[in-house]
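Render Transcriptional regulator in 3D.
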Amino acid sequence: MGVYKLMVEANLKNRFSRLRGQLDGLEGMLTNSRNCEDVLIQLSAIKAALNQLGVLILQKETNCLKLKDADKKKLETLLNRFVKS
């Protein structure tokens, strides 16, 4: 396994762990009746973490494609739109 692939796999595992921690934190907040603002901030963090994880997975999966430069540019544009949505 190449160094790049190992780094990507480690990054994915880290992001999954972080996301699990954020979800556990949200569950605790709801169980302990934390205030609405704190819950919304946590939800926003979870959404951002999930988006980042999705982009990383898409990048990992699309790196193996043999694309022409123009198609790579289109794909990059689509990924950027995905991140911003």
